[in-house]
Design brief:
By secondary structure, the protein is an alpha+beta fold. It has 26 helices and 21 strands. A hairpin with a 5-residue loop joins strand 18 and strand 19.
Length: 715
C-alpha cells in the first residue's frame, strides 16, 4: 500500500471527525429525524413528519416516480403533474410528426378533452417504507456463496412482499441498502392513465441543446406537464374515457417569492445510482478506463447522429430520443472525469484507505476481519480490468448497433419455431414480430445505422486484440480483406432487418432459415457469443467484488463511527438538502446562483439548431411583459444549489423551508457530475428551473392560464 506522511494522515483524521457537510447525502425519508435539527438550523420550518408520514398527509404524497427513470410531483388538487421536458420527451416525440411537430412547436391542452393519452406510461406513489433488515438477514451464514445468499434473500423478500400487499391493490419491492447490509420494503401505488397536458417548444424546453447540457449558467425551461387519472372510484385504472383526475393526498403549493442566496433548499425524488464508497482501485478504473472508452465510442455515434439529424426534420424527430440518450451519458462522463481529477478524488480515496489501514491494524478483531480487504480489492480490479474493457466494447460498439437487438427478437422466434407448433402459435409469433417491426422502423434510419456500424466495427477491431475479437471481425478480415465499408455495404444490401419492405416480405413467407441465413443474424450471433463467453468469468469476479464491497461498507461504518454514512442511491425515494448558492468554477471564474431571461437573449442565435427562440418569447422580453413572475424587474430562469442529486432526480421538486415548490431540478453542473462517486460541496451543484419561469411560460407565453389557475400560488 502507498504510504502517506504523518501530517497528511493527521489532517485527514481531523477531517473525518467532522460531521457530514450540509448538502452531501441522499437520505431515506423515514430516518430524517436524525437530520431534522441540522435542516431546521439551515432554515427549514417543517418537521421530519411533515416530509414523510404514513398516517398523515405529507410531502411524500406529492412525489412520484415518473415512468421508469425520472421523478415528478403533483402540483394541483386535480392531479396535475410537473416533470422535466426531457423526462416527457419520449411521449412528446411519440405524438409528433412532420405535419404536427410537438417537439418543435410545443403542445398545450386548452381543456381536458385535448389531453393526450400515453399507453404504457405510469406514475408511482410511495405508500410506506419499512426496515426489514432483520427479517431478510436473520441467521445468514458468512460462508455461503453469493448465489446462495441471493436465493435466500429472494425467498424472504417474496414473503415480505406478499405480507405487505395482501388484500390491497398495492405493489411492493424489497431493496438492498449499504451494499446489502440493510434492506427496506417499499410499498407502492401505481397509476396507469397519465396524459400529456403541456410542453414548451424544444427551443425553450431544450434551449442550448447539447452545448449547454451539464453546464452552468443555464437558460432552458426544462419542464412538461401531465395529468394523472383514476377510475371513477378513485382507484388506479387503465385508460378509459370515464376516468377522472386524481385527487391527491397532497400537492405542492408554488412559491411566488422565489429564493434568495443561501436559502434552504430540499430536493425530494428518486436518485438512480451513486457509488460513494468505492475503493481507490475502482475509481482508478472508472477514470482511466471505463469512462474514456465509453466517451470515445459514443462520440463516434453522435457525429453520425447529429450530421443526419440536422439535415432532415423527419430524421431529427425519429432520432431525437436516441440522440438525447447517447449524448447525455457521453457528456456526463466527460464532466465526471474532469471533476474527479480536479478534486483529486483518487488521492482522497487513497488517503482514506491509509487511515483505514492504520485504524484496522490497531484493533486485532478488525485486523482479522478487514485486514486483507484492500489487498483483495487491488487483486480483483486488476483481474477484471481486461474483461471490463471487452464488455464495454460489446455494449457500446456491438449491442449499440441498432440491427443487433432488433435481430435478436426474431432470432428468439426462429430458434423456438418447430413443425409441431400450432397454427395459432405461429400466427401469434409472426404478429408480434410485425408489431416489433412497426415500432423499430418508426424510429430507424438505415443511413445512420450503416455508417455507425462501419465506424464502430472498425474501431472495435483497432482497439481490441485480435484474439479477443467477436467472430464477425475475423470474417471481415478474412473474407473482405479488412474492408469495413465493403462489409457494411454487404450487410445493408442483403439483410431483411435493415429494410422494412424486406422485413415484412420475410414475415409473409416466414421460415426460421430466413432469419438464421440473414447476414444480420451472423452479426448479432457473433456479438452475443462473445458476450456469453465473457460473462461467466466476469460474473464470478464481479460477485467477489460485490461481496468484498459489502464487507467494506460494513467496515467503514464500524471503523469510522464518528462519520455519518448515507446509503448510495438505488432509485428509491430520498431527500437531499442544501442551500441556493453560487460557485467558483475555476481560477478566476465565479458564478452567481441564478440566471435571467436577459441571459437567454444574450445566447439567442436566429435560425441556430440549439439557440434559436420563438418570436413571442422575444416580444415578451422586449416589452418586459413578465406578469407577476418577475423579481426586482428581472425574470429569473434557473438557479443552482448544493443539493446532492443524481440521475433519476430529473423532474424532482426543489422545495423551500416551508414546503413550497420553488424550482424543478433538471441537471448538474459539468464538474459536479462526479457527485455520483465523490461529492464536494464546493464544486457540486444541482441545476433547476425557477418555478416562476415555468409559470411565465405556461401563462404569458402559451396562454394556458387555466392551468396556472388550478395551482395554489403562495404570495
Amino acid at each position: 500500500m502507498k504510504k502517506r506522511s504523518f501530517g497528511l494522515l493527521l489532517a485527514l483524521t481531523l477531517l473525518l471527525r467532522l460531521p457530514v457537510l450540509a448538502g452531501e447525502g441522499m437520505w431515506i425519508p423515514i430516518l430524517l429525524g436524525a437530520n431534522e435539527a441540522e435542516m431546521q438550523s439551515m432554515g427549514m420550518k417543517m418537521s421530519a413528519e411533515d416530509i414523510y408520514s404514513v398516517n398523515n398527509s405529507s410531502l411524500k404524497d406529492a412525489i412520484v416516480k415518473f415512468g421508469g427513470g425520472c421523478t415528478g410531483e403533483i402540483i394541483s388538487s386535480e392531479g396535475l403533474l410537473l416533470t422535466n421536458h426531457h423526462c416527457g420527451f419520449g411521449q412528446i416525440r411519440n405524438h409528433s410528426s412532420v405535419e404536427n411537430d410537438l417537439l418543435k412547436n410545443g403542445f398545450w391542452a386548452m381543456n381536458r378533452s385535448e389531453e393526450l393519452t400515453n399507453p404504457g406510461l405510469t406514475v408511482t406513489f410511495i405508500v410506506k417504507i419499512e426496515d426489514v433488515t432483520a427479517r431478510i438477514l436473520d441467521g445468514m451464514a458468512d460462508d455461503i456463496t453469493e448465489q446462495q445468499r441471493e436465493a435466500i434473500i429472494t425467498q424472504r423478500s417474496e414473503e415480505v412482499i406478499a405480507e405487505m400487499t395482501e388484500g390491497t391493490h398495492y405493489e411492493a419491492e424489497v431493496k438492498p441498502f449499504y451494499y446489502g447490509n440493510e434492506f427496506y420494503v417499499i410499498v407502492k401505488e401505481i397509476f396507469k392513465d397519465v396524459r400529456l397536458v403541456g410542453a414548451p417548444p424544444s427551443s425553450i424546453g431544450k434551449f442550448g441543446g447539447e452545448t449547454d447540457n451539464w453546464v452552468w449558467p443555464r437558460h432552458n425551461a426544462d419542464f412538461s406537464l401531465f395529468r394523472v387519472y383514476t377510475g371513477p372510484d378513485g382507484m388506479p385504472a387503465e385508460y378509459a374515457p370515464e376516468n377522472i383526475p386524481l385527487k391527491p393526498r397532497h400537492f405542492l403549493p408554488i412559491s411566488m417569492e422565489g429564493i434568495q442566496e443561501n436559502d434552504f433548499t430540499m430536493v425530494f425524488g428518486f436518485p438512480a445510482r451513486t457509488q460513494e464508497y468505492l475503493p481507490s482501485y475502482a475509481v482508478d478504473q472508472i477514470v482511466n478506463l471505463e469512462h474514456p472508452t465509453r466517451i470515445k465510442l459514443r462520440e463516434l455515434r453522435l457525429d453520425v447522429f447529429n450530421r443526419e439529424m440536422r439535415a432532415s426534420d423527419e430524421i431529427r424527430i425519429r432520432y431525437a430520443s436516441k440522440e438525447s440518450g447517447v449524448s447525455n451519458g457521453y457528456k456526463k462522463w466527460k464532466g465526471a472525469i474532469r471533476g474527479l481529477k480536479r478534486d483529486q478524488a483518487l488521492l482522497k480515496k487513497e488517503n482514506l484507505e491509509a487511515e483505514f489501514i492504520t485504524r484496522v491494524a490497531g484493533n486485532p478483531e478488525w485486523q482479522a476481519k478487514y485486514g486483507s480487504l484492500l489487498g483483495d480489492f487491488e487483486k480483483a480490479y486488476g483481474e477484471i480490468r481486461d474483461l471490463e474493457k471487452q464488455l464495454i466494447y460489446f455494449q457500446e460498439a456491438g449491442y449499440s448497433l441498432e440491427t443487433v437487438p432488433f435481430t435478436a427478437r426474431a432470432a428468439r422466434v426462429a430458434n423456438a419455431w418447430t413443425d409441431d407448433m400450432s397454427d395459432e402459435d405461429k400466427a401469434a409469433a409472426i404478429e408480434e414480430l410485425r408489431k416489433q417491426g412497426k415500432r423499430f422502423f418508426s424510429t430507424y434510419y438505415d443511413v445512420i445505422d450503416r455508417e455507425v456500424t462501419e465506424v464502430l466495427l472498425r474501431t472495435y477491431a483497432e482497439d481490441i486484440p485480435e484474439e479477443q475479437w467477436p467472430e464477425v471481425l475475423s470474417f471481415i478480415k478474412s473474407d473482405m480483406g479488412g474492408d469495413f465499408n465493403a462489409y457494411a455495404t454487404y450487410l445493408f444490401e442483403n439483410s431483411a432487418f435493415v429494410d422494412s419492405n424486406r422485413y415484412y416480405a420475410m414475415l409473409d413467407n416466414f421460415t426460421p432459415e430466413l432469419v438464421t441465413n440473414d447476414p444480420a443474424y451472423a452479426l448479432m450471433g457473433s456479438m452475443y457469443n462473445k458476450y456469453f463467453q465473457l460473462q461467466p468469468a466476469y460474473s464470478t469476479m464481479d460477485d467477489q467484488i460485490s461481496k468484498k464491497q459489502r464487507l467494506y461498507m460494513e467496515a467503514l461504518r464500524e471503523v469510522f463511527p464518528e462519520k455519518t454514512f448515507f446509503p448510495d442511491a438505488n432509485f428509491t425515494l430520498r431527500v437531499a438538502y442544501g442551500r441556493a448558492e453560487g460557485m467558483t468554477a475555476r481560477d478566476g471564474v465565479t458564478y452567481r446562483f441564478y440566471t435571467t431571461l436577459d441571459g437567454v437573449m444574450e445566447k439567442y442565435k436566429p435560425g441556430d439548431y440549439e439557440f434559436d427562440l420563438p418570436q413571442k418569447l422575444i416580444d415578451l422580453h422586449e416589452a418586459r411583459d413578465y406578469g407577476p413572475y418577475a423579481q426586482d424587474g428581472e425574470l429569473r430562469v434557473a438557479f443552482i444549489a448544493s443539493n446532492h442529486t443524481s440521475g433519476g432526480n430529473s423532474g424532482s421538486p426543489v422545495i423551500n423551508g416551508s414546503g413550497e415548490l420553488v424550482g424543478l431540478n433538471f441537471d448538474r453542473n459539468w464538474e459536479g457530475t462526479m457527485s455520483d462517486i465523490n461529492y464536494d460541496v464546493n464544486q457540486c451543484r444541482n441545476i433547476s428551473v425557477d418555478a416562476r419561469y415555468i409559470l411565465f411560460i405556461i401563462d404569458k407565453f402559451a396562454g394556458a392560464t387555466h392551468l396556472v389557475e388550478e395551482m395554489k400560488l403562495v404570495q
